Amino acid sequence: MKWKILIVDDSNVVKTVLMKALGESGAPIQSVFDASNGKEALDTLRTESIDLVFADINMPVMNGVELVERMADDPALKNIPIIMVSTDGSLSRKEYLQSKGVRAYVRKPFTPEQIRAVVREVMLGR
Amino acid sequence: MAVDSLLSSRAMENAVISVLNDMASTRASVIKPENLPRFDHALIHAHITFEGPSSGELGLLMDPGFAADLASRILGMDESGDLLQDMVLDAVKELLNVVCGQFLTQRFGYEPAFTLGVPRVFPLGAQACNVLLTGPSILIFRCDDSILPAYVRVKSRID
User: Fold this and answer.
1) Is residue B134 very low, low, confident or very high in pLDDT (cuts 50, 70, 90)?
2) Which chain A residues contact residue B116 at CB under 8 A?
3) Is B31 at the interface with chain A, CB within 8 A?
4) Contact criterion met (CB < 8 Å) for B100 and A14
5) Pick from A16, A91, A111: which is nearest to B75 by CB?
6) What strand order describes the sheet that includes A82-86?
7) Mutate to test the interface with A, among B98, B102, B106 (most CBs of A within 10 A)
8) How far apart are CA B12 and CA A89, in angstroms?
9) For B83-126, how does the pLDDT look when each residue is reduced to its tens digit (9 = 90+)?
10) Could you tell me if A70 and A42 are in contact, meaning their C-beta atoms sit under 8 angstroms apart?
11) How many angstroms separate the CA of residue A44 from the nearest CA in chain B?
12) B104 Cα to chain A: minimum distance (Å)
């Protein structure tokens, strides 16, 4: 099975670097979708069968925390794995997001190796 | 220099040096503000605010050519010539966004939660740059042949 991945970040640079890291990770990727905020992400999640979400926190329109809350409240979306990728170092916010179902948290700046490792951990359990 | 201001400057120094190294494979060192040359052309000014237990603002100023060079390094490209200007500005915004996150952790630790503003990037004329850089809380970094002025201002603290 190949995965459909959604990257949610308002920075095209982050999306580009993340796509490159995913491409080099060896993960079985069918396609990568992108969104610039939580609202756009929800639109994509309701029309595409997404297997994994990478999301930033600090975004305009709808931030990553609200996106996670909306997904947690939606039975159709709550089981989709989410990996947060953010500059935010707050432990309390990290714990809150994990309580809402976030599977992993990657602090920016990240390396391709970190992305490969977190995808393995979240999607393959190793 | 007040202790708070000194701690903020140190945290900013560490954040800029580590983020430039980790994101853009660029080594930076701090130089004395009195060694800062007067600018005779516009610079790119990146600015971000933060709010939480303390509020404040951070900024970076850089030559457009150096910004393009940093963007190409962040994107892992060999040359900066093919980069669209929007992508260069986006890279500068993201660089400052990450610097701000690292600064807040270095300065205040992992417990307080801060809300970052959306980074803004705009050109600043030479005269305005020179005036801005005579103000307080200015840090000057040297990266290879380029000069990277920065500032951090922590406006208030609620204990």
Assistant:
1) confident
2) 58, 87-88
3) no
4) no
5) A16
6) A29-35, A3-8, A52-55, A82-86, A104-107
7) B98
8) 15
9) 788 999 999 999 999 999 999 999 999 888 899 998 999 999 99
10) yes
11) 23
12) 8
Q: Which of residues 51-90 of B touch A (CB under 8 A)?
A: 71, 74-76, 86-87, 90
| ω into A109 cis (within 30 of 0) | yes
Torsion sign, CA atoms B101, B106, B107, B108: positive
User: Touching check for B14 and chain A: CB below 8 Å?
Assistant: no
Q: Which one of B26, B54, B97, B99 makes the best mutation probe of the A interface by having the most chain A beta carbons within 10 Å?
A: B97
Q: Are strands A52-55 and A104-107 parallel, antiparallel or unpaired?
A: unpaired
pLDDT, residue A89, reads 82
Beta bridge partners of B60: B46, B150
> Do B143 and B62 meet the contact criterion of CB atoms below 8 Å apart?
no
Question: Which among B67, B68, B60 is positioned nearest to B99, based on CA atoms?
Answer: B60
Distance CA B135, CA B126 (A): 15
Min Cα–Cα distance to chain A from B152, Å: 17
Q: Which residues contact B65 (CB under 8 A, 6 or more apart)?
A: B146
Does the beta-carbon distance from B97 to A11 stay under 8 Å? yes
* Helix, coil or strand: residue B117: coil
Secondary structure (3-state) at A115: helix
Structural domains present in chain A: 3-124 (3.40.50.2300)
Task: Indicate the pTM of the whole model.
Answer: 0.91
Domains of chain B: 3-157 (3.40.1550.10)
